[in-house]
Amino acid sequence: MRERTTSDMSLIASKFESIAPSQTLAITAAAKQMQDEGQDITSFGAGEPDFDTPQHVKDACIEALLEGKTKYTAATGIPELKEAIKEKLYLENGLEYETNQISVNCGAKHSCYNAILACCDPEDEVIIPAPYWTSYPEMVRLAGAEPYFVETKRENGWKLTPEELEGAMSGRTRMLILNSPNNPTGAVYSEKELKALVEVCYEEEIIILSDEIYEKLIYNGKKHFSTAAISDAAREITITINGFSKVYSMTGWRLGYTAAPEEIAGAIAKIQSHTTSNPTSFAQYGAVAALKGDQSIISDMVEEYDMRRQYMMSRFSKINNIEIVEPEGAFYFLVDTSKMGLSSMNLTEKLLSRYKVAAVPGIAFGYDNSVRFSYATSLDVIKNGLDRFEEFCHAH
Ligand SMILES: *Cc1c(COP(=O)(O)O)cnc(C)c1O
Questions:
Q1: Model confidence pLDDT, tens digit, residues 106-142
Q2: Fold type of domain 55-292
Q3: Interatomic CA distance for residues 366 and 138, integer angstroms
Q4: Which of 28, 114, 133 to mutate to test ligand 1, by most ligand atoms within 8 A of the CB atom?
């Protein structure tokens, strides 16, 4: 055996050198620890709804448990759920898929990772418009591919333009990640805007990953368009991802789903059959109830989010040294703090330690001159937190 010293030995794969832990989770953890120590922390860090899972969804899950639905299911999900998803996509999104094109995954986060893994070879480039959801670049790197960032502009409502997309293409471009309604910007792409992007991608033979997890959290009378529903061409190149976490307040259930061209769906089924196997059996029965049950619970939640959103909008617009674009979807504000001249880590650390306000540093989303405020928290918390944030802004 060759001789070596223990210090030479690397215990982890080299790809982890470029992979950072999730910063959105880090700040919420720090805030929670301060809270546990008895400090009065106001948190805008939440990346999940503050509502409980609807009762009928819980009941369906409990019933499944009691009935003994506790064994392996088909790796890509139970037929009842896939049928319910198929019907939902047809009726609500104008998307016709066969059951074998649909898979249920362990959260939409898992759906995204599966899709990237299924399509990308090492050296392939994946275009990610920034600001982006914090996990996309790391998923791409874990899959061995490379993220390519395109900075979108505040003047354009943080939306990628076809010209920017064309400018970002290289011979290695394989995929574009689109997320509308968007986390962290709240941007919602119109049908026309999506169509223009689809045309570029189709022409250049680029796959589109369309993350539509915030589909129903949408305001100002805006309408959500599924990228794949734009045209037949769009459907040929688009992977549609959606889930239960945000719209049905089911983050802990770990259920998302993917609808994709048959070849891609087949690859995803293979990945899942050899890694996770099925998403939790009884949780899937809850998801069937979520899709088939009363949908008015969603409009109640949306109404509440919208009230908070409008309140925050009115507060933010009165603060001088920040800039915002009105978010039209999801439950976040991306506050542009360029005028303060502080790095987002520095800013959020000060905000937390001195003003006891937790928010997520923009560097986690690839735009360092910003901070993300979630309004998935009560109006009282929001009022109190914005009083403190206003003080902070006046002092900087
Ligand atoms: C929350 C979130 C997801 C993942 O949700 P799951 O809990 O994994 O279903 C995916 N994409 C975006 C943009 C999100 O904000």
A1: 999 999 999 999 999 999 999 999 999 999 999 999 9
A2: Aspartate Aminotransferase; domain 2 (3.40.640)
A3: 12
A4: 133
DSSP class of 8 = G
Q: What is the pTM of this model?
A: 0.95
CA pair distance 90, 359, nearest whole angstrom: 38
Q: How many residues in total does the chain contain?
A: 396
pLDDT digits (tens, 9 = 90+) for 9-44: 888 888 888 787 766 667 778 888 999 999 999 999
Task: Tell me how far CA of residue 46 lies from CA of 150, 184, 348, 360, in angstroms.
Answer: 26, 12, 14, 9
Domains 14-52+296-395 and 55-292 share a fold: no
* From 246, 254, 374, 375, mutation site for ligand 1 pocket: most ligand atoms within 8 A of C-beta: 246
Round to whole Å and give the CA distance between 124 and 106.
25
- Per CATH, domain 14-52+296-395 is 3.20.20.70: no
The domains of the chain are located at: 14-52+296-395, 55-292
